[in-house]
Amino acid sequence: MSKGPWLGDGEQKAWRSYLLMQRTLETHLERHLQRDFGLSTPDFEILVNLSESEHGRMRAFELGRSTQWEKSRLSHHLSRMEKRGLIRKEACESRYPEIVITEAGTAAIEACAPAHAARVREFFVDVFGPERFAMLGEAADEVVEVVGKHCATDCALGS
After folding, report:
1. Domains identified in the chain, total number
2. Which residues are in the HTH marR-type domain (predicted)?
């Protein structure tokens, strides 16, 4: 691997292939979620987080941390999901309400999750195979760790 600031030809090709793969897969999966279940990828991400949390509820700041969304984006999206009946906001001891998955939200995630997982398996997991997929997971964890360290020490952006 090159140590200079510029990517070598092979590195540039691999980086661009990765970006194209990410966009292609993300777009294709989102189109299926939208067409088949009327959900966007952000809807799905919020519903997954809530459905996997204890008692189907989280504080908004916890959702923001897990999704890495800006506060205003999260607030606007949660309002749209609330209007559609997928979540509700409940007052709690804190100044800010808890976000709770509704029966409609639970039904939506239960309906779409198996098909979504099957597509992720078909278009991503099975393409890599077990060994390469495990290596990808390890590499992804390392990248996240390096970015996290950068944000915590060298970066004015924070995490």
Report:
1. 2
2. 32-132
Cβ-based burial of 119 (10 A; exposed 0-12, middle 13-18, buried ≥19): middle
Tokens 């969304």 belong to residue: 69
**CA–CA separation, 102 vs 7, rounded Å?**
48
Could you list the beta-strand ranges (E) of the chain. Answer: 57-59, 87-90, 98-101
Same domain, 85 and 134: no
User: Taking a C-beta distance cutoff of 8 angstroms, is the pair 50, 58 a contact?
Assistant: yes
Q: State the residue range of the domain holding 131.
A: 117-159
Residue 27 falls inside a structural domain: no
In a domain, 93, yes or no: yes
Q: pLDDT for 89-111, tens place per residue?
A: 988 777 778 999 999 999 999 99
Same domain, 102 and 155: no
Tokens 């020490």 — which residue?
153
Burial state string for 24-45 with b = 16 or more CB within 10 A and e = fewer than 16: eeeeebeeebeeebebeebbbb
In the predicted model, what is the mean pLDDT of residues 135-153? 93
